[in-house]
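Hey all, sorry for the wall of text incoming. These are the two entities for the joint prediction.
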Amino acid sequence: MELKFPGSSSGGADRTRIAVAEGAATGAAPTTAGLDERLVQVSRLTRLMQRPELGALMGAIAIFVIFAGFDATSNHLWLSQTGFAAWSQTAAFYGIMAVPVGLLMIGGEFDLSTGVMTGATAIVMALLVGHLHWNAWLAILGTLAFAALIGLLNGFVVVRSKLPSFIVTLATFFVLRGLTIGGVLLVNHGSTQVSLEGTSFPGLASAKDVFGSTFASSSSLPSGYQTAVLWFIAVTVVGGYVLSRTTFGNWIYAVGGDANAARNTGVPVARTKILLFLSTSLAAGLVGIISFTQASSAVSEQGVGYEFYYIIAAVVGGCLLTGGYGSAIGAALGACIIGMAFQGVIYAGWDSSWDFTFLGIVLFLAVLVNTVVYRRAQRARR
Amino acid sequence: MTASQDDPLSTSAAASGHGAGAVALADAPLLEVREVSKYFGSVNALQDISLQVYPGEVTCVLGDNGAGKSTLIKILSGVFQPDAGEFLIEGRPVSLAGPREARAHGIATVFQDLATVPLMSLWRNFFLGQEPTRGRGPLRRLDSGQARTIMREELKKMGIDVRDPNQNVGTLSGGERQALAIARAVYFGARVLILDEPTSALGVRQSGIVLKYIVQARELGKGVIFITHNPHHAYPVGDLFYLLKRGRLMASVRKADTTVEGLTEMMAGGAELKELSQELLQLTAGASGAEAAEVAEIARELAEEAPAEDALDSAEDRLREQHGTPGAPT
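and here's what came out:
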């Protein structure tokens, strides 16, 4: 076999095919030092199997087909635009977070404060617009600034204290959770729901158009698709591009794969990790803005517990829990699987209480598959 | 305080240089440290170490565990700053603030962990931290095509034919990983190459391959610092040998003035080897068949390594003068 497929970690970069140059080593060179011939005998199938997002892609297709079969709605909504709009909306809400959470995981860290962050940022936006009567666009900047602050705090504390990010962000999670209840009760006349007061809110209409609206409505789908879906696609494209095509992406793999090696080669490990925490919190800010502009209100504790969905989506998408390996597109596919599962169960007429059981099983299977893939990629000859 | 300070090396070095670049800089060593010391609290990790590295030469630093090799490497690579003594690059005193600055001066260190990430591809590893890019502003992206080409060419110079630049480093053997790390250091402008125990985790054949890379780097005119505890690896490739023991420089010799046996003796101390051999033989008394034969074989080898009795005594005396009991565990 003389032609090679690009490797798993190139993230679909240039599809260069490299011919095997037998015996082309330089004159005095030790020819025995060439790579072992056995190594070349890797089948195309094996190569394909090593791609981190492959499992998620096959899973997504399988789940789509399964729910098409079990669709119990009168006019087969699952295969209609209505069904597509329904699950893509759910997928978008998880996916906008799953992609940066996946990148962070590839970078070797966790963020458990992401779920509550989506709620906290929605509340910040609601308070800025509804109570302080800021222009909605200014409020968006304020919300993102708040999100950035939390993300930087998470990142700095993790990098400086060298504590596991699991613990640090768990602390952030509880602090924020308390704030979104206690703090909101204090400033919001004893109610945990922050709604708009008054009538005129400058900029809110245009902000809603961009973040919390719908598009592509047609006769077959009067309600259209959620704008959030476009944001989901944008975040996935940017995440995938950054990971596979940029210097920063190289650093993400490196700090998660071996932080010490990365440091020794001059990769700014601390900066890379802090930026990753910043990206998850900014994405949470985006979700908060979207959910507030959709509903024109925000409730304390919304988003709590969602951090696990994001992690599940990333893991299902092939991101390794221990870091150093994974894919942004995989994480997005993982979010699609969750969205399809939640919506599919409704259309199939099943009891949605089983959602969690289903997710648990999917997570377990995904980790099993990933472990096999990881061992293949890691396999060393000594 | 040791024999090395009124050192015969500085005069003989220029004359006996092997590589292409050896003559170019006349007598100024590429890198030199003069009487550097390093303390950790009350521990003298290093005491008055002087060492010179010439272009186109392999300078071997030999020492057993706890001899201070890693502390010395960290000083040379800019990770630690010496508490006393001078650091000179091409005859000019410098003070390195960190590894980055050392690298800017052309000092590259290949650490024992090789600073490679197993789950990343060859080309991503090769350029890690110094990635080639194209495009501007937000469109600035990895130039993966160029990266692959350069990496293949550079590894070819080391005698490795890379078939697949996308292959994960984790699939390489230890020797190949070492070659990748050396080729990377050479490509990024290293003039002084510090190799931290490159052969310690390798089998016989892989070690041989790495030794060839060391020679190859020397032929490119690099000043190579080869840290090892194995005189059998050091002797064939080394030009100049420094022996560390318990944080002090025990001896420094040129290749012409010593043999493998001489190095071994100075390093391990023949007495200890003899003792070990005796102990092993006693052990075999209780053991059975094949196992006993194997142990006996090792014991015999140890006994052979250990030099004659009077040579031992004098070596031991020398050691005792310097550090008290030589046999004490470090």
